[in-house]
Specification:
The chain is of the alpha/beta class and 376 residues long. It has two domains: 209 residues, Cation efflux protein transmembrane domain (Alpha-lytic protease prodomain-like, Up-down Bundle), CATH 1.20.1510.10; 155 residues, 2-Layer Sandwich (Alpha-Beta Plaits). Helix content is 63%, strand content 15%. Helix 2 packs antiparallel against helix 5 and helix 5 runs antiparallel to helix 6. The two termini are 28 Å apart.
């Protein structure tokens, strides 16, 4: 399946799931609102309002997916994929609004109680709503995982919270009928807090995606495996992937090749790498840098191994790569990956240079610092 067909299939899955959510929530909200008003149940009416907000969530999901699927244009050459994160924040805002509304109305009912009058019909509506919402929530979340859509996953999570809210309403109604004790408003307060918590967590997740975070290991691993299928490549390093929407990445990396390779062979190799990585992973590489590797001198190759052992023995050094010895200029260059726990990076590099010069005093030592951007 091509990347374009995958995108189309993903869009169809999200839109179809969104439409199912709209239909289910409209029906549920209508029945709950009618029954809630007839029996004077604040919790049931609030539950119905929450279902109407879910309709808006589904609409936002569909519209956000449609916009995100638009082709790149002059103004947005990297596509519109990040719109999904904005849509996710809108859904979170709707959830928070529903939570605040429910909390406010519940507090008012605690101050000025209104006795609910539940009947067998109202209990039946609530029970059906719970079953429908559980199945809907699980279905939407599962489709979200398949389509790698945080939008759908958020909508599914919201639906499951609705099921919990409906369950609370049902329990409150049963307690009222059996014991003539009304706890509905207090239960609504508790549920409101959970709804608010869910909305805030979704916003934090969306902001995290927009800010940019460490790319999942599976992506960098796939890229590295694809690149290392070329026998001319002895290592793949500095893999940097930029997210432009769910499952849409542009990236760059360095490869290590023998110092005997000519420019024309390197050019052919990098072009083939671009092509293979895209076919294997769907990730578009925008740049492939080159590290030259001493390959014709056993003495220099042993030097590389000895210096690597010496350097990675330092605390907070995760990796050494790009090692090259220029015998003519008596110069050693290499990069080190430093983790984020190291507070004095410059001091660490000076220490490393000093340790290497103790072993090889006749060489100049140049060390470049790489941050621990991705798992490699």
């Amino acid at each position: 399946m091509t990347e374009q067909s995958k995108t189309i299939s993903r869009e169809k899955t999200i839109v179809k799931t969104g439409i199912i959510g709209i239909v289910a929530n409209v029906l549920l909200a209508s029945f709950k609102a009618l029954v809630g008003l007839s029996v004077h149940s604040t919790a049931m009416v609030l539950d119905a309002v929450n279902n109407f907000s879910d309709v808006l969530s589904s609409l936002v999901t569909i519209i956000g997916t449609k916009i995100a699927s638009k082709k790149p244009d002059k103004k947005h050459p990297l596509g519109h994929g990040r719109v999904e994160y904005l849509a996710q924040m809108i859904i979170a805002a709707l959830i928070i609004y529903a939570g605040i509304t429910a909390l406010w109305e519940s507090i008012k009912k605690i101050i000025e109680p209104v006795e609910a009058e539940h009947s067998a019909a109202s209990l039946a509506v609530i029970s059906v709503a719970i079953v429908v919402k559980v199945f809907l929530g699980l279905y939407v979340r599962e489709q979200g995982k398949k389509a790698k859509s945080d939008l759908l996953i958020s909508s599914g999570t919201d639906a499951l919270f609705d099921a919990i809210l409906s369950m609370a309403v049902l329990i409150s109604a049963v307690i009222l009928i059996l014991f003539k004790f009304n706890i509905e408003a207090y239960v609504s307060v508790i549920i409101s807090v959970f709804i608010l918590k869910a909305g805030i967590e979704i916003i934090i997740e969306a902001v995290d995606d927009m800010l940019g975070h460490r790319v999942e290991t599976e992506y960098t691993k796939k890229v590295k495996e694809s690149v290392l299928t070329f026998p001319e490549v002895h290592g793949a390093y500095d893999i940097v992937l930029h997210n432009y929407g769910p499952d849409r990445y542009l990236g760059s990396l360095h490869i290590e090749v023998d110092d005997t390779m000519t420019a024309d062979k390197i050019d052919s190799l990098t072009r083939n790498i671009y092509d293979r990585v895209f076919k294997d992973t769907g990730i578009i590489l925008t740049a492939v840098g080159i590290y030259s590797r001493n390959s014709s001198d056993d003495k220099l190759m042993k030097m590389r191994n000895d210096i690597t052992e010496l350097v990675v023995d330092h605390k907070h050094i995760l990796q050494l790569h790009g090692f090259y010895v220029d015998e003519e200029r008596k110069r050693i260059t290499f990069d080190v990956v430093v983790d984020f726990d190291e507070q004095d990076r410059e001091g660490l590099i000076e220490h490393i240079i000093g340790d290497v010069k103790k072993v090889l005093p006749e060489y100049d030592v140049v060390v470049a610092i790489d941050s621990d951007i991705s798992d490699q």
